[in-house]
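Anyone able to model this chain together with pyridoxal-5'-phosphate?
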Amino acid sequence: MISNEAVIQKGQQYVMNTYGRFPVALVQGKGARVWDADGKEYLDLTSGLAVCGLGHAHAELLEALHKQAETLWHCSNLYWIEPQVELAAKLCQYSGLDKAFFANSGAEANEAAIKLVRKYWSRQGKPGCEIIVFNNSFHGRTLGALTATGQEKYHRGFTPLVPGFKYADFNDLDSVKALLGDNTGAIIVEPVQGEGGVNPADPGFMKGLRELCDRHGLLLVLDEVQCGMGRTGQVFAYQHYGIEPDAVTLAKSLGGGFPIGALLAREEVARAFAPGDHASTFGGNPLACAVAGRVIDIIVNSGVLENVARMGGYLHQQVTALVAGRDDVVQVRGLGLMLGVEFTREVKPLVDLCLQKGLLLISAGPRVLRFLPPYTITGEELDAALDILKTALKEWANE
Ligand SMILES: Cc1ncc(COP(=O)(O)O)c(C=O)c1O
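re: yes, here you go
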């Protein structure tokens, strides 16, 4: 019989030890709820870590997946793929950018962006350009994306890294200016840092970055792998800031749970790639693109963004009230349904307490409790989650 224990035992024997996993094996999901192998139910306020934006087992996504599975699962990118073309057109329509490249994950989307930046400047006679990235950022685990990630703990043991990256401080324009040089080619930034602790960019900072890029002829690349595709209440997080990027990377919620990543770019920048410059066997495959195409339709046309804004406001307000008066809370911050509570101490025991009580939450760095509910979450579901959190917070205080 399947059970948490049986799955965990076999996993410990056969699966590489790269994740600090919770002692639970999830086997089923529906909407904002998931069930483990022992039949226990949880409210999932992680959405599979910002992936299942429309909740688990969304009926329309299942329909899109089944329909495509019965037609064509895979064909090489040496042929045109109709669902990929349709998805590219939709992403360009909603982003205002001109061209898309498809990958399978966030890290790969960022690798594509890094290569595009390098190729763009090589063609302009500036090979090996430098890229400015940010402390506390997270861009993925492949070597280029890892180098772009401004957190030393992820670098340890994996040097030498990729040359040509410089690290500025997030929300500090002067620290960016101090790094500018003749060989700078681009700035890569998350509009809301996710793994780094749920840090939204200040409006003046994002505008300032755009102005700096315009003044110095640099490319502004936004990593919206976590904060994009509706998470903040706009399709793209940069739409809150009134700026336009030169390129954007996406993954996570783009496929609603089906693996896909994307790089979008302005025509002039995208043109740097020629056949043979970049590729991915599975990138932009028919199944992923059919599902992602439907994800966008639902996000844009079904009142989903309005729900994110409404429920995001409600969650922010309720969580602020819940932690009011606690002397171990530093700040509640976020955008839309991407919320973090920074504590003065490590939140892992609190996350564990919530799990035991049937609520999935996650940390962002050691001291930030992170909420990433599905965009379709209801007020009743949030209330139920907050009741559990309230009890867990009390127990945590008494520990
Ligand atoms: C902002 C950001 N970029 C990139 C990545 C890497 O994505 P993936 O794990 O799909 O490679 C993540 C993952 O958490 C992320 O949050």
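The mean pLDDT is 98.
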